[in-house]
């Protein structure tokens, strides 16, 4: 049979994801509503009448032209273990018909993994500067072969400066949960993490779940965090849109956590779960009362709830690839390593030019924008 790609409905898209066990939340129909500045489309891959893959594509328009970059963040949801040439050719044919001049995708395929003990040793090594230079504990040869296959099909890997490509992070940090208990996970954490969790409990930090009306309080602390850590915060309306879209798709898709100490909000986070994969999405904490360790308390509650909900992975999302003690970004990895999890390297994001002049012009335009 010849693989074909066509538009599908949200229900069919979601049913396929549910049957797979999990997929990135960026590949669910709700994400199109969150990214309302893009045009979204649910796609299905069909082998005859059988649905064999799905994807969410977001179209970004070129200024003044009805031409688009077609972006599939952390997708599509396909069987990446076989030869994907026919499936990707069908994707190209469909997207070209929709006016796309180029495609960007991020296959959800892990190439390498580094365990906590390896990372701890690498961070203490004064010679090593990059995670990519550290021998991995696990390497997936099939994933490495897939990268070679994509190159042979004309796809080009996007640069991942500092571990971050043009869209999603190439390096993530995850805590494996499958087959483990709360005690197992806690025992895997370093002494500092366990001490901070105990201290938060002793100090009376209370972690509760909030609703849509609590997003304003979360956002207040989030803006404070942005000012302290020097990043541009998203507006409250963004989180309200995310809440509405994702909880409409599944009431448990997005959850808000609030850590209070003596009535004061000291930390707040959002958790996303699709099937067996849970993600720490956004986090915020106050400068005041940092000593009560609200951030550790809220993370521990999210991990416990993820375990209870059947998650097999708790994903702390992106890290840079630096392990240089002098690099200010290294603190993010040091914080996450304390959870006893592992660093994972994904295949990264890949582009295919359909209209080469337009693709080149768009790439140059985006670089100028910074």
From TrEMBL:
Q: Does the keyword Acyltransferase apply?
A: yes
Provide an example Pfam family for this protein.
FemAB
Q: Which InterPro entries match?
A: Acyl_CoA_acyltransferase, FEMABX, PG_Glycine_Bridge_Synth
Q: Which PANTHER family match?
A: LIPID II:GLYCINE GLYCYLTRANSFERASE (PTHR36174:SF1)
Q: Which UniProt keywords apply?
A: Acyltransferase, Cell shape, Cell wall biogenesis/degradation, Peptidoglycan synthesis, Transferase
* Biological processes annotated in GO: cell wall organization; peptidoglycan biosynthetic process; regulation of cell shape
Q: Which organism is it from?
A: Aeromicrobium flavum
UniProt GO molecular function: aminoacyltransferase activity
Q: Under which name does UniProt file this protein?
A: Peptidoglycan bridge formation protein FemAB
Regarding protein family, the annotation reads: Belongs to the FemABX family.
């Amino acid at each position: 049979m010849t693989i074909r790609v066509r538009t599908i409905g949200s229900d069919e898209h979601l049913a396929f994801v549910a049957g797979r066990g999990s997929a990135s939340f960026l590949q669910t129909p709700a994400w199109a509503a969150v990214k309302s500045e893009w045009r979204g489309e649910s796609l299905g891959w069909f082998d005859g009448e059988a649905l064999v893959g799905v994807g969410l594509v977001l179209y970004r328009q070129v200024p003044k032209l009805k031409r688009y970059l077609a972006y599939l963040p952390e997708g599509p949801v396909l069987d990446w273990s076989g030869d994907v040439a026919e499936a990707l050719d069908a994707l190209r044919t469909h997207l070209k018909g929709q006016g796309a001049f180029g495609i960007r995708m991020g296959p959800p395929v892990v190439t390498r993994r580094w365990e906590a003990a390896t990372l701890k040793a690498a961070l203490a090594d004064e010679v090593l500067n990059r995670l990519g230079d550290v021998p991995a504990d696990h390497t997936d040869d099939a994933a490495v072969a897939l990268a070679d296959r994509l190159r042979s099909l004309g796809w080009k890997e996007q640069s991942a400066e500092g571990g971050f490509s043009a869209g999603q992070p190439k390096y993530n940090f995850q805590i494996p949960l499958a087959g483990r208990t709360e005690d197992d996970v806690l025992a895997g954490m370093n002494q500092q993490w366990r001490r901070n969790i105990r201290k938060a409990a002793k100090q009376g930090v209370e972690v509760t779940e909030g609703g849509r009306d609590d997003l304003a309080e979360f956002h207040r602390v989030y803006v404070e965090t942005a000012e302290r850590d020097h990043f541009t915060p998203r507006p409250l309306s963004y989180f309200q849109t995310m809440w509405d879209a994702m909880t409409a798709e599944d009431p448990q898709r997005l959850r808000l956590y609030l850590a209070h100490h003596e009535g004061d909000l000291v930390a707040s986070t959002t958790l996303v779960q699709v099937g067996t994969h849970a993600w720490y999405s956004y986090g915020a904490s106050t400068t005041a009362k940092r000593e009560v360790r609200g951030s550790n308390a809220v993370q521990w509650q999210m991990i416990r709830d993820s375990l209870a909900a059947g998650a097999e992975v708790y994903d702390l999302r992106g890290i840079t690839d630096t392990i240089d003690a002098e690099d200010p970004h290294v603190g993010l990895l040091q914080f996450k390593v304390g959870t006893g999890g592992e660093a994972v390297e994904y295949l990264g994001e890949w582009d295919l030019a359909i209209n080469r002049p337009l693709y080149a012009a768009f790439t140059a335009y985006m670089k100028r924008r910074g």
